[in-house]
Amino acid sequence: MDMTADHPTDGELLDDETLEKLQALEARAYAAFDDGDLRDAASLFGELVEQTPEIPHLHYMRGLAHKYLRDWHASLRDNLQSEQRRDAFDEATAWNAAIAATGAGDWAEARRQWNRCGITLPEGEGPIEGNFGVACVRLAPWSDAEVVYMTRIDPVRARIDNVPLPESGFRFGDIVLHDGASTGHRTYGGQDVPVFNAMQRLQRSDMATFTVFVHCDSADDVAALEAMTLPGIGMVEDWTANIRRLCRRCSYGTPHQHDNEATPDDDGSWKRERDLGIAAQGRAAVEKLLATWTAAGPGRVLEVIEQREHPLSDPAPGQVWWLGEDA
Predict the structure, then answer these.
(1) How far, CA to CA in Å, does 60 sit from each of 70, 83, 102, 133, 295?
(2) In this structure, which topology does domain 17-116 adopt according to CATH?
(3) Closest-CA residue to 133 (of 118, 120, 151)
(4) Taking a C-beta distance cutoff of 8 angstroms, is the pair 192, 185 a contact?
């Protein structure tokens, strides 16, 4: 960024020595941000803001560092400062202000910013409860990210529609805050849908994740279990069929076949041993579901039901986890 592109004060020009020092400080701030040293970046951009408060992009960049630190109140403050110092509408500032307001639970401000972006919202006050389509979300993108489908209920909030692996710490039905920029795509219903990075869980589902190991003779047996409905059961998912361990390229773009890669059931033979994920409110509901299922068909065997809770992970300093594959 060229600091001479914005006026630091009302018509007052910086002397060469001061300008050189500020440009060096700005270079350090951008370098820290690019290296994932977000706390240093926020501090350095803060020093710049103190010395040249009228430059909008410095407020924006401090807000961006606070955004990826997931400090929503600080990010909102910075983006509002950026907005106030601009002569014209800046879409990036408005989007980040809306994301930060959503994370902070400031629904009036989130609605104001989405309206500024030209996004049509359901009428009313408080949390936005709309239908913004199906997309994918990359859970814990700073770790071994798992990609699941989600239903978007506002521009950056969504409900998880799969049963995530318990190691992720996420659950079926969790409400998550995701970033505004797509970092890839997947296929859903014959169409491409965007993939977004999850930034934080906003609301924890009451559906715990149970890992279940069964034996059965055919895909029809699994389909019958997936179709069963009982109180306290949210979803049954055949992880043996659905889970793919993807390379980073697959995670960020269109999944592709690797050389010598074998996937479950691809050789045409049925694997009787199945790993299932079941979202349920309690173990008793899972036991009742599986007892009903095993009694209804020959060859259906329950091996074990496991439940292990895992905490959500946090990004480590120095991780640049928010970029897409092209970046």
Answers:
(1) 15, 8, 17, 29, 61
(2) 1.25.40
(3) 151
(4) yes
- How many helices (H) and strands (E) the chain has is answered by 10, 10
Sign of CA dihedral 290, 291, 293, 298: positive
Starting at the earlier edge strand, list the strands of the sheet with 273-280.
Answer: 233-238, 273-280, 208-215, 301-306
Pull the structure tokens for residue 38.
Answer: 């977000």
* Helix/strand/coil for 236: strand
> What confidence tens digit (pLDDT) does each residue in 286-321 have?
999 999 999 999 999 999 999 999 999 999 999 999
**Three-state secondary-structure class, residue 235:** strand
Choose the CATH number for 208-306 among 1.20.1270, 3.30.310, 3.30.479, 3.30.70.
3.30.70
| Burial letters 51-78, b for 16+ CB under 10 A, else e | ebeebbbbbbbbbbbbbbbbbbebbbbb
pLDDT tens track for 156-197: 999 999 999 999 999 999 999 999 999 999 988 889 999 999
**How far is it, in rounded angstroms, from Cα 222 to Cα 238?**
7
Q: What is the pTM of this model?
A: 0.88
Which H helix or E strand runs over 242? helix 239-242
What does the alpha-carbon distance between residue 327 and residue 296 come to, in Å, rounded to a whole number? 52
User: Can you give the residue ranges of every domain in the chain?
Assistant: 17-116, 134-203, 208-306
